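Example record

One chain of 425 residues, shown exactly as stored in the release files.
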Amino acid sequence: MSSQEVLLPAVSSALEDLQLYPSPTLPSPPNVPKRASVALILRVQPNPAHLPTGNERRPSSIAEFFELPWVKEGEVEVLFIKRAARTGDRWTAHVAFPGGKRDKEDAGDIEAAVRETLEEVGLDLEKEEGFRCGHLPDRVITTSWGTFPLMVLCPFVFLLTSPKPPALHLQPTEVASAHWVPLRLLLIPEFRTVETCDVADRLAGRGSGVLGLLVRYVLRYSVGLMEFTAIRLWPSLSVFSTFGKDFLAPAEAGKFESSLVLWGLTLGIVEDFIDMLPPIGGALGLWNWPTFTAWDVRFVVKLMTRNLCRRNFEIAKKESVEAAMLKDELRGRNSMEESIVDIRNIHEDEGEDMGESAILVRSRAMSEPRRLEVKVRGERERISSFNTLIDGYYDIVRRAVWITMAGRAVVGTAVVGALIWRARK
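Predicted structure tokens for this chain:
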């Protein structure tokens, strides 16, 4: 059995569950009225050896779509965009999903995602053949590592059912390029990497004036850069905005290899989605917590967060597995034996090492809240696995950085004192 033969039914089941059990809408926190929405858009690229005949009926459901012969042999892909480089933009040149801030004219969060997708890439989700698949967990976007809330981010999933890729017309001031990426690549460990960035501003908070600048300068050259887990993207189809100023910028700088790296907020949304796919909890094993390039800071962070990371990982994995089991019980299944297989058996011939997480649930899988509470009307709340993993992490990281800085100061003072004492002796 190939990985595609397992992935396609799993994607179908996950999307059906999203339709049946969408995540509840997260209200805006007090004094934080801003909301934004993004669209995670899926399609199936036909295999050239198994093209559609043209006589297929338009599917009336997600399950019916994934039963089409050409779909069973196809490749599930996800649409990503690379944002245009803009001065002052917090997410400049980042890989992301189409989307943006909700306007007053938008009837709701999903309408904001539909409108922004049309504006940014020219894709009208209202007119394209497909399905609104559901709502992934909302999250509060913060700055300064949870200190200051900025907005609520609402991710929605859409499935396009046409075998032909939709025509994309990119807004050059907002989008530099758009890319269809095979979903299975996001599950392969070899595509995992790290992204580094300067986080001195986050550590220093909102301090201003000379003191604020001094603190940022000291942090920038003492803790080094921060490393975040990331995924290298390998697109099957790309569209570039030739009218944007970013189009020839890499070549003019002497860089002729375009690199697409997915990390940050968008990776968090992706993690929540692929956590619904096999192996249940396996995607969590591909996650690495953020750290620093400075060796002593990295050591102290790892030492202080070790227990928290282990606890959060076990909670997130337990939620994923128990959610799948609970869901099967609610659907009247008598046993999980038919829906559990060993992921190592599937990837053994392909030379892929999936690590310790070896449980593959072929039935519909979804994340559950920590309480695994079943609502009276049959809906189940869903929480973000990504948020579970980093819950409380940055609070400890901030303390670890300042403890390391204090340790350096103590050691430095001791060394200088010893040298002065020796010189006077």
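Notes: The longest strand covers residues 148-160.
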